[in-house]
Design goal:
single chain, about 60 residues, mainly beta, Rubrerythrin, domain 2, three-stranded antiparallel beta sheet, two-stranded antiparallel sheet, 5 strands, about 30% strand, binds zinc ion
Length: about 60
């Protein structure tokens, strides 16, 4: 099983080769913790980490 990759900019887990949010191709497979944002519009955590899209995010990427 290969480890998921997370966008280095927004930390969102991405399956494609380009992040749909930042259009970046910089990914990290070395990440720690995960966070699922269900309703980004109402989530205080989403605001805190600066995302506006409901998705799964890594807490820390290196
Ligand atoms: Zn991104």
């Amino acid at each position: 099983m290969s480890k998921k990759k997370a966008c280095k900019t927004c930390k969102m887990f991405v399956e494609e080769n380009e992040c749909p949010t930042c259009k970046t191709t910089q990914f990290a497979t070395n990440w720690k913790g995960r966070l699922t944002i269900i309703d980004a519009k109402k989530s205080g955590i989403a605001k805190k980490i600066g995302v506006d899209k409901s998705a799964e995010y890594a807490i820390k990427v290196t």
